[in-house]
């Protein structure tokens, strides 16, 4: 989706691994920090119809629908992330239920396989993510999550590193 935080961290991790990237984003590559035309280099396609708020929702639903599974990095509640999880699991744009603390949870899904990772602890999260990707034979992965998290310093970098490790067996040299 190209938003700041988890979205950009996922794009950068994939790029570092030589993986194809793509997806949809609001018109003018809009982010919380303003337009970011550099997102074009990741193969993102702009959505031009509707208001900006409608474009954010449409971008999220299209990214879920165009993927085999969704991986949500969710160290805490986040309205946009929670609605994306809700859509990924039910096909309806509505916030998901809160989850009990833990490494990760795979909610029952009637729409797309979804894994909600609730920690950035690499030794705990990486094996869970890899097992999920293998079990669902994921070839196109949608990654979502918040822009930032006030309890995690250098949140975007920490997420990028976690995803780099989790996806490393899919990289160009793998």
Question: Which helices and strands, and how do they pair?
Answer:
Layout: H1 6-16, E1 23-26, E2 30-31, E3 34-35, E4 44-47, H2 52-65, E5 69-73, H3 79-90, E6 104-105, E7 114-117, H4 122-135, E8 141-144, H5 155-167
Parallel strand pairs: 1-4, 5-7, 5-8
Antiparallel strand pairs: 2-3, 6-7
Give a nutshell description of this structure:
The protein has about 170 residues and is α/β, with parallel strands linked by helices.
Textual characterization of the structure:
By secondary structure, this protein is an alpha/beta fold. 37% of the residues lie in helices and 16% in strands. Helix 1 (6-16) crosses helix 5 and helix 4 (122-135) crosses helix 5 (155-167). The longest helix has 14 residues, at 52-65. The chain starts with 5 loop residues before the first helix and ends in a 7-residue tail after the last helix. The model has no long low-confidence stretch (mean pLDDT 91).
Characteristic terms for this protein:
globular; 174 residues; two-stranded parallel sheet; four-stranded mixed sheet; 5 helices
Taken as a percent bin, the fraction of beta residues is 15-25%
Strand order of the largest sheet: 6-7-5-8
Give the overall average pLDDT.
91
Tally of extended strands?
8
| Main beta sheet | 4 strands, mixed
Share of helical residues: 25-40%
Structural class: alpha/beta
């Amino acid at each position: 989706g190209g938003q700041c935080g988890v979205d950009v961290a996922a794009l950068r991790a994939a790029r570092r691994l030589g993986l194809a990237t793509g997806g949809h984003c609001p018109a003018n590559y809009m982010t919380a920090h303003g337009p970011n035309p550099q997102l074009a280099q990741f193969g993102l396609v702009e959505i031009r119809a509707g208001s900006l708020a409608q474009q954010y929702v449409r971008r999220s639903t299209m990214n879920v629908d165009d993927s085999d599974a969704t991986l949500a990095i969710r160290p805490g509640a986040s309205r946009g992330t929670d609605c994306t999880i809700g859509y990924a699991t039910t096909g309806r744009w509505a916030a998901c239920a809160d989850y009990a603390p833990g490494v990760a949870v795979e909610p029952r899904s009637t729409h797309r396989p979804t894994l909600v990772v609730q920690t950035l602890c690499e030794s705990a999260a990486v094996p869970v993510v890899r097992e999920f990707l293998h079990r669902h034979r994921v070839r196109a992965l949608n990654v979502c999550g918040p822009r930032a998290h006030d309890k995690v310093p250098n949140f975007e970098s920490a997420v990028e590193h976690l995803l780099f490790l989790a996806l490393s067996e899919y990289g160009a040299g793998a």
